[in-house]
Structure formats: structure tokens, C-alpha cells
TrEMBL record:
Organism: Pseudonocardia humida
Keywords: DNA-binding, Transcription, Transcription regulation
Spans traversing the lipid bilayer: none
Protein's recorded name: Response regulator transcription factor
Highest taxon listed in the record's lineage: Bacteria
Length: 549
């Protein structure tokens, strides 16, 4: 009976039917202890179907059996993979213990073997975490050489991906992405084990996100989705796949699908955890993605709870939470949060992710100088990385700052460039936000027809997306001067007058129109002079008397 189960388990493993492999091999092992080779298959299947505790126990058994047989090299390999999985689960102490045991086994036997190359991998990873990318690149390179010498594709793929990520963090994105692409040839060619394949997919997609390379991120996310779908029983890595898919869907405007994928990711991560230990770190990203969609839809209470869940799972809820506070009218809270977060971000990738929100919040807060500093820094980072996604964000930020500085004419070119880039990227929400800014620039220049068309186009997109807060704002901005009315005021002065009539102060008007408080004060002075009015209350009466409100 056990022999039949073993054979069925081996067959299922070869067919990547992980649940069947796990069930058959587990059953056979209960009847009669499996050989180490079959136990290794059982451990792999356990990890892949979301039973990490079982996988760890079985790997430890295999290790002990190889030690008993005097096979130090195989025992050391088991120790490495035990450490690898422990690191994936955030158990640094357990991982360190397994690695120390693996080194001792190899040192005692003075073995020259591929396992020596595997033990270089955690050394290089530690160097990356310490910020020593030069050492990381060198150690990963040595691991690749060992893997090539012994013909070990798993080691070569792991080390090459690691070296590519180290080069990206070192400021050499072109060379780094070339290594990632090369490693993925082995992964998509089915030359590596499923554990290495899944880890490589996720690591490479993270590398694409670090370089804001949307095209590659979409390509490898689609490949990861196909790989996961070909293994219906797979739990490990499927959650990460769903999060990556949700991020891309949100950018492309498929918000309901993005929310659904992020929800499924939460469920997958929890299925994989089974309540046996700390939650998978990826669940924080899934909660954050759900929060982002809720914020954009105007579901602020739900967004707040989801950001808190993301934070509890270890995912910094910024810049989304700061943008939520801004949408709720908490400008000061938003400014403090984004400034704190930006102050903690030391690497340029992390700063680039925060700077667009920083610029937006500082403009609303009336701190045009801080917004200008942020936009200039974003432009410098963009020049280094040269990614379309960053170019779009940088152009939009620069245009918004120029508008805030009162130079609407200069703002037109970067805003149109930003809109064009967002459109080419298939990012309708961001493209519509660029059109709102273009409408404000047109209005400041007296082109009311141009402003109306930009507002109308943006409003149509916001309505299709379900972006309720943005739709409400653009509808309030779209109010036009009554036909046939004659006024000595410019279009922008009329905007200021209308908002004065609603009781808004200079700071609030500056936030609404993306201007500095100084510019608003200048417009207000012009209004008083042109209309011969002595006060804000008189200006309010004039606005109602002439049907401007």
C-alpha cells in the first residue's frame, strides 16, 4: 500500500500537482518512513501548498538522516534550504542557526562543493541589507561562478537575480536589469526548481518596481500569473502574484478588479499561514492596495481601517494615508506625515515614491518653496533612472509647482508632457489629474473655453473610474462665467472672487486653485482695485449681485 502511495506521490510531484503529492507522500510516510529523496519532495510540496511548518519539520528530518548516514554535503544542503525558508518567514535566528550548522559540516569535511556557493547567498544578502552593494555584487558574482562550475542552475539563478538587484541599488539599473532578464530566461525555460522559480519571479518584479520599469513589471507579472495558474494547488507565491496584478490593474483604471485581486491576496496569505505563525509580510502590501482603491473611490472610513491593517502587518501606509488626510481636509496632518516619512527615506527609490505626494500636499498647504524643492529632487532622480512612469510623475509635479508659483504659461508644457506620458502608460486616473491642472492653467491665462474642455474630459474619466472626490472637485471648478457677462476681472481673479464669496480664506483658496497665498493676496488686491471695493464682505456682495456664485 505504501509503495503505491509513494509512486503516486512521485508522479503527482512530477506533474506539479502539489496537493496530491503532499497527500500521497504524507500518507506513505505515516505507514513507513520515506527515503530522504522522497522526504525532500514532501517538504517542497508542503511549502508550495502553504504548510511551512510541516515543510520545516520534514526538511529537519532529512537533514538528520543525512547526518546519520555521514553525508555531510547533503546534510549541509538541507540546512541551507531550512535557512532559506526561515528567512522567507522572517525567522532570522532560526536561519542563522541552520547556516552556522551548514558551514560547520562543510568545514569539518573540507568539502569543495556547490553547497559552498549556496552559503555565499546569505552573505551577499546581508551585505545588501547593510547597504554594502559593492560587497554584495562581488559575493553574488562568486556564487554564480560556483554555480556555473558545478552546473547548478538553481544557484546560478538565485545569485544572478541577487546580483542584478544589488546593481540596481548601486545606481546601475541598466546593468542590473540585464542580469534579471538573463536569470528569467532560465526561470521561464523551466530550468530551475519551483521554489527558486517562484522566488525569482517575485524578486525580479520587485526590481522592476524599484526602477519604475512598468513594461517589464507587467511582462513578468503576466508570466508569474501564468506560472501560478499552471499549478492550481499552489499557495506559496500566489499571494504576491495577486498583489502585483492589483497594482497594475489600479494604474490602468480597473479599480474593481484591483480591489478583488488584493482581497484574494489577503485570503491567500492567510491560507498559507494557517494561523501557525506571524502573518506573511506580503499581506501588508495587499491591505495597502485595497486601501488605495478605497481612498480613490472616496470610501474614506474603509480606507482608514485598511491603512491601519497594512501598518499592523508591517507595511508603511504612506504616502496613501497622508493623501487620505489631505482629502479629508486635514492638510496639517498630511503635511507632517509626508514630511516625516520623506525624512526617513534615504534611498532614492523610496524618496521617488513619496515625492509626488509630497509636492501635492505642500502645494495645498501653501508651502510652494517646499513643493519646488520636492519637484526638483524628483526631476534629478528621474534623469538618472529614465523610466516613463517617473517621467510622467515628474512632469506633472513640475507643472503643478509652476502653476502654484503663478507662472501658468510655463506650466502648460510640462503638464501636457505629463498627460501624454500617463496616456501612453494607460494610466487614466493620473492622466485626468493632469488635465485638471491644465484646465487651471488655461483659466489662469484667460482661456475659459480651453479650461472647460479640460475639466469636462477629466470629469468624464473620473466618473467612469468612480473617483468620487476628484469628480466633485472638478465639477466645482468647471463653473463658467455666465454667457454675455462683462467683467474687468481676469478668469483667475473671478475664480478667487467666487471662492471669497463662499467664505474661504486666502490659504484655503490657495489650496483649491493650486496657488501660493501670496498670489491669492495679489489677485484679491487687484479685485478690490478694479471693482473699487473696500473689503471681502463687499466683494462677496458684488459676487452675488452679479450672479457669479
Amino acid at each position: 500500500m505504501a509503495t503505491g502511495s509513494v509512486e503516486r506521490g512521485r508522479l503527482a510531484f512530477g506533474q506539479r500537482a502539489w496537493a496530491a503529492a503532499f497527500a500521497e507522500l504524507s500518507g506513505a510516510d505515516r505507514e513507513s518512513p520515506l527515503d530522504p529523496e522522497d522526504l525532500e519532495h514532501l517538504a517542497t510540496a508542503a511549502y508550495l501548498v502553504g504548510r511551512p511548518d510541516t515543510g520545516a519539520e520534514v526538511l529537519a528530518r532529512v537533514h538528520r538522516e543525512f547526518v546519520r548516514r555521514g553525508d555531510r554535503v547533503r546534510a549541509a544542503r538541507c540546512a541551507f534550504w531550512s535557512a532559506f525558508h526561515a528567512l522567507q518567514s522572517g525567522e532570522a535566528g532560526r536561519a542563522g542557526g541552520w547556516l552556522a550548522r551548514a558551514r560547520r559540516l562543510l568545514d569539518e569535511g573540507r568539502h569543495d562543493c556547490v553547497e559552498r556557493g549556496y552559503l555565499l547567498y546569505p552573505v551577499a544578502m546581508q551585505a545588501i541589507f547593510a547597504g554594502d552593494t559593492a560587497t554584495a555584487c562581488e559575493v553574488f558574482g562568486r556564487a554564480v561562478e560556483v554555480g556555473d562550475r558545478f552546473g547548478e542552475p538553481d544557484l546560478v539563478a538565485l545569485a544572478r537575480v541577487g546580483q542584478g538587484r544589488a546593481l540596481i541599488r548601486r545606481g546601475e539599473p541598466t546593468a542590473g536589469m540585464a542580469l534579471l532578464d538573463e536569470a528569467m530566461i532560465a526561470v521561464t525555460g523551466d530550468e530551475v526548481s519551483p521554489i527558486v522559480a517562484g522566488d525569482s519571479y517575485c524578486t525580479v518584479i520587485e526590481g522592476c518596481q524599484e526602477t519604475f520599469d512598468l513594461r517589464r513589471a507587467q511582462e513578468w507579472t503576466a508570466a508569474l500569473a501564468h506560472w501560478c495558474d499552471s499549478q492550481p494547488d499552489l499557495v506559496l507565491y500566489r499571494g504576491q502574484c495577486l498583489v502585483h496584478r492589483a497594482e497594475i490593474m489600479q494604474l490602468h483604471g480597473a479599480w474593481p478588479d484591483a480591489a478583488d485581486e488584493a482581497q484574494r491576496a489577503c485570503e491567500r496569505f492567510r491560507t498559507g499561514n494557517r494561523g501557525t505563525g506571524p502573518e506573511h509580510p506580503g499581506i501588508g502590501a495587499a491591505f495597502y492596495q485595497r486601501a488605495e482603491v478605497a481612498r480613490l473611490r472616496g470610501e474614506f472610513a474603509a480606507a482608514e481601517e485598511l491603512y491601519q491593517q497594512a501598518n499592523r502587518a508591517g507595511r508603511e501606509p504612506q504616502p496613501g494615508l497622508a493623501l487620505l488626510r489631505l482629502a479629508q481636509g486635514g492638510t496639517d496632518a498630511a503635511r507632517v506625515s509626508i514630511a516625516r516619512c520623506l525624512g526617513e527615506a534615504e534611498d532614492r527609490v523610496g524618496r521617488a515614491r513619496l515625492l509626488p505626494a509630497h509636492v501635492e500636499i505642500m502645494l495645498v498647504a501653501g508651502d510652494v518653496r517646499a513643493a519646488r524643492t520636492g519637484a526638483d529632487e524628483l526631476a534629478l532622480i528621474t534623469a538618472d533612472l529614465d523610466a516613463p512612469l517617473l517621467r510622467a510623475a515628474s512632469a506633472q509635479a513640475t507643472g503643478a509647482v509652476l502653476l502654484g508659483e503663478g507662472d501658468a504659461r510655463a506650466a502648460l508644457a510640462p503638464l501636457r508632457r505629463g498627460w501624454s506620458l500617463w496616456y501612453e502608460l494607460g494610466a487614466p486616473y493620473e492622466a485626468a489629474r493632469s488635465r485638471v491642472l491644465l484646465g487651471l492653467a488655461c483659466r489662469a491665462l484667460g482661456d475659459e473655453d480651453g479650461a472647460a474642455m479640460e475639466f469636462d474630459a477629466a470629469g468624464s474619466t473620473f466618473q467612469q473610474l468612480g473617483a468620487a472626490p476628484d469628480l466633485a472637485r472638478v465639477e466645482s471648478l468647471a463653473r463658467r462665467r455666465p454667457e454675455g457677462s462683462v467683467s474687468p476681472l481676469t478668469a483667475r481673479e473671478l475664480d478667487v472672487l467666487r471662492l471669497v464669496a463662499t467664505g474661504m480664506g486666502n490659504r484655503a483658496i490657495a489650496a483649491e486653485l493650486f496657488l501660493s497665498e501670496k498670489t491669492v493676496a495679489r489677485h484679491l488686491s487687484n479685485i478690490f482695485t478694479k471693482l473699487d471695493l473696500p473689503s471681502r464682505s463687499a466683494a462677496t456682495a458684488y459676487a452675488y449681485e452679479h450672479h457669479l456664485v
